[in-house]
Amino acid sequence: MSRRRIKVSLVFSVLIAFSCAVLWLTKSPSVQGHAPSVPQDTQSGNPLAGLNRKAKASKGTEPTTVYDLTRDVIATFAPTDVPLFTQESMKERVGQAEVNYRQGADKGISEVNVAKTVNALADKFALPDYARVSVAMVRTTRMVLMLQLPGLIGQDNPADKTHKKKIGSSINRAMSPLEATALTLFLLQQKTLNEAFQASHKEFYANLHQKQMEKWTALRAQRDGAAQDQEAGPSLQVRSNSKAEDTAQAIKRAAAGMSSDDLLNLADSSLDTLGIKRERSQP
Fold this sequence. Notes:
By secondary structure, this protein is mainly α. It is built from 12 helices and no strands.
């Protein structure tokens, strides 16, 4: 097996191992935002199963259906302290951009833009370095989220007839406006709350490697008849996270020093950085 295949196998097996722990956080009311309309499917083990079903059923260009899906995506991933009127404004702008994209009027959004948006907000709120992301971290996180939301993440543009995915090929680097928004909000969520994501690029991948080594050690021990009760994956238990508290305090301090106009325009300026056009929607 080539070194490249070994590396890919390593990353994907680790993602599978700890993605459940990552996305378990989305079941917490403090993370879910205002998302009572998004059905949870506990039997499938996927906390985002209801949203994924809706995404699969919303493949067309009919505005009402797209706006309905957009509302649920934003409600699921937006921080709880984002006002509802701001969420509504985001829904209108992102929803119209998604319709335009599906109709072939606009191009997709790159992973680079997602990294720029997250890092711009980290700079604006003077957050620690671990709140920043690299483009590689954006791609890895996208793979994590795709395990739970395959109906939304990694989908090709239905209006683009030139891109045909080959078996075994990587997912398209260009994202729809709705996917890019979901990924950005998810990254902000994880950088704020999840210790596994509160790390630099180097630390993030070192942690992935360590988790895989621990898993392989546990599996080998079980195969040899030892340590049968050893945990072979990340714990789902809630642990106190000093980084989350530090991040929250930094955001509060920065927000206190901003004008009301800056705070009100924060969502729009972030969508500007992400590459979503300002355009009055007509649902």
